[in-house]
Each structure stands twice: as C-alpha cells, then as structure tokens.
Amino acid sequence: MPFPNLRMPATSPARIKNLIHGFQAVLIFLAWVLTIAVFTKSGGIDGRSGWFFGVCWLSIPALIYLVAVPTFPRARRFGNVYAFATVDALMIILWFSGWVAVASYVAEGKSKGQDEQKDSKDKKSGCDAFAYGSASKCSVSTATVIFGVVIFLLFISTAYFSFRNVAYFRRTGTMPDAVSDPTFDAQTKAAFSSNPAHEFEEEDEFRLGRGGGAGGSGGEGPSHYGQDRDEDYALLQQSEADELGGSHHGGVSGAYDPTSTHGGSVMHDYDTSYNSGGYTSRFEENTEGYRDTSYHSATEYSR
Description:
Keywords: Membrane, Transmembrane, Transmembrane helix. Residues 190-228, 243-303 are annotated as: Disordered. Its main location: membrane. The protein is mostly helical. Among the domains are: 13-115 and 124-183, Four Helix Bundle (Hemerythrin (Met), subunit A); 197-245, no CATH class. Helix content is 57%, strand content 0%. The chain starts with 12 loop residues before the first helix and ends with a helix. 20% of the residues are buried.
C-alpha cells in the first residue's frame, strides 16, 4: 500500500504576500473600530488618536492596489515592482508613526495622572490614573497600539517581498512570479493586451498537421487540414510556373508586335482574355518576313 504524499504544495511568494495583506485588512478594520470606541469615551479626542484613525483610512487604497493589481489580470497593466515597494515602505512609515503617536498619548496620560495624585492617599497607577479620560479609554487605546504594532510588523514582511521583487527585476529584467503564476496567461489574453504569437502557433500546428483530435487518422482533423493546405500551395506553384512558361501556350492571333515589320506578326504571349474553351491552339510563326536585327561583326558585313 503506497504511503500518502505528505509534502506541502508549493506556494508562490506573491500568494503569501496577498495572504498577509488580507490578514492586515482584518486587523486594520479591528483597529479602526477600537479607535471609534476611543472617540466615544469621555475626555475628548486627542489629535494623536485622530492620526491613527486617519492611517486606517489611508491603508484602504494601499491594500487595494497591493492586492488587486497582482490578482486581477485586467488590472496588471498598473503593476510595477517599484510602485509596490514604494507603497509598502510608505505604509511602514505611516503605521510606525500611528502606533507611536497613540503609545505616546497613553504614556503621557498615565504619567500626568500619577503626577496629579502625588498628594493623594489613594494613589492609582496605570490606566486607573489616566488623566485624559476613563480607565476604559486608556485600555482601548492600549489595544489599538498593539494592533498598530502587529500591522507595522506585517508591512515590514510584505516590504521584504516587494524589495525582493525589485532586486529580481533589476537582475533579470522580467517580472517575478510571471511564469509560475497560473493567471499570467489570462493577462496576455485580456482586453488590454493581445497575444498574436499564440495564434501563430495554432496556425503552424494546422499547417504542419500536428493538431489534436482526429487529425492523425486522415479524416476531418487538423492534420487533414494541413495536408489540404500543402496540396493547394503546390497546385498554386504549378499554376504560376505554367503561366510564366510562355512556350507552352500559343499567342493571340492579330496581336500588336512593336518589333514587327508587317501587320501579320504576333506577340509571343499567352491569351489574357476570357476564353471559355480554354487556351488557344498552338500558333506557328511565319518568319519569312522578319528583318534580321541581331548584332553582326564588321567582318560579317564585309562578306
């Protein structure tokens, strides 16, 4: 009994990157919801929490570009390895500034609250001493900091893939994951591009008789089609050879010949007029009335 294959299927780096971005989208949505919860707490809205909220919104178009462009063939014309790396690097900076801003807001509120309770007998610490609102507001803000740190680290990992693709592109001049990506062929057949080379390959297969189906049996398959094309081409060549060889067909009676000395001569040509009966019969020339116009040396004339 054969053992089952326990090897994991190979996953392209592009798919891994898209999965990370999908996980980031979920975390960003949760961080966005938590920030709204912070705004609903008493104590007002701090600008640092507002900046974190704005970073959540700025991440939406960035994720759409980073995920949709490599995924959908019709959008791949907007893809660029340098653009992907730039967007990932920009999001690293934005999320770093976002979670640092909220972390400073929470730390400042705790420190200020503890300073205000120096003379108090019931000293509080941590979020209980938060000076900018309730303890729950401090706790939720701390949760947003944690989400921000995770999202920031995930953008570092996706930026690694982007800069790796940039290095690959600079080394080879081609887009990475283009050959192994099963949707790459769909891109070449999309509305924004064409693939005439594929059509030429199909035409060659028909011409050489290598097509599939019933071609090998001599029936109505592609192989039979290729043989018919070869036979037609051979007949066309034979027809052209017959037309060019003027000696096989007679001339036209009464045709004008500019080199002739009398009106009864004819041109050595084939009949180009319509004749339902086929070619005319062979015409025998009367050369008695021709003038000799060929070249002769002076000695021959002296004779």
